[in-house]
Amino acid sequence: MFMLCIILLQIPFVYANVTPLDSNNIDSVLANNEIVFMNFYADWCRFSQQLKPVFEEASNKFSNLLPGKVTFASVDCDRN
Predict the structure, then answer these.
(1) What are 23-34's pLDDT values in tens digits?
(2) With left for phi above 0 and alpha for psi between -120 and 50, is residue 68 left, alpha or beta?
(3) Sequence-ordered list of residues with C-beta below 8 angstroms from that of 25, at least 6 positions apart, any chain
(4) Cβ-proximal residues to 44 (8 Å cutoff; 6+ apart), any chain
(5) Are 19 and 29 in contact (CB under 8 A)?
(6) Has residue 2 been placed in a domain?
(7) Whole-angstrom Cα distance, residue 27 to residue 73?
(8) How many domains, in total, are found in the chain?
(9) pTM
(10) What pLDDT shows up at residue 18?
């Protein structure tokens, strides 16, 4: 149990306001926001992995300041 607690403490818990985009929701996300920052990523890409925490942090800081005006979205390039 002790080892499980140590492992869980090492996992970063990040609440991100990043909206996953796909063909089902892209039109509504673009229509309902003035500015959409989009992250096109692939899970296997080292640069995508490096950008993810930075993008999530920016999303956490700015999405709540201007709701309905600014949003952060991500597109999985392998799926879409």
Answers:
(1) 999 999 999 999
(2) left
(3) 19
(4) 78
(5) yes
(6) no
(7) 12
(8) 1
(9) 0.73
(10) 94
